[in-house]
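An instance as discussed:

___
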Amino acid sequence: QVQLVESGGGLVQAGGSLRLSCAASGRIFSSSAMGWFRQAPGKEREFVASISWSDPFTYYKDSVKGRFTISRDNAKTTVYLQMNSLKPEDTAVYYCAAALVFRFRPMSPQDMDYWGKGTLVTVSS
């Protein structure tokens, strides 16, 4: 019922910036929130940031606070992740996800109901 397509990944040098986009279609407003997750080689998938559709409640992983900003455009049904001051440890596949229920806390992968295929972000030193 909900389809998510990420874009904007690529190769960037440390200290650079990148903007990821997640285009949503289908019954997207049946969901209450969107989130970004990432998975590095040999690591578990982890929460990065989330935002509600109706009001801009946001949560961030501690290590990205002050560097990453999540935002949304309801008219375009698109969610963004602006990433600044990128570090090599930010290298991962980044996934967009949608949740039917918004939770007033950082989310876990098990909280999400729909997933995109992911986009690769590589940060070189």
User: Anything to note?
Assistant: The chain has a mean pLDDT of 94. The first strand starts at residue 2 and ends at 7. DSSP finds no helices and eleven strands in the chain. Residues 33 and 53 are 6 Å apart (CA to CA).
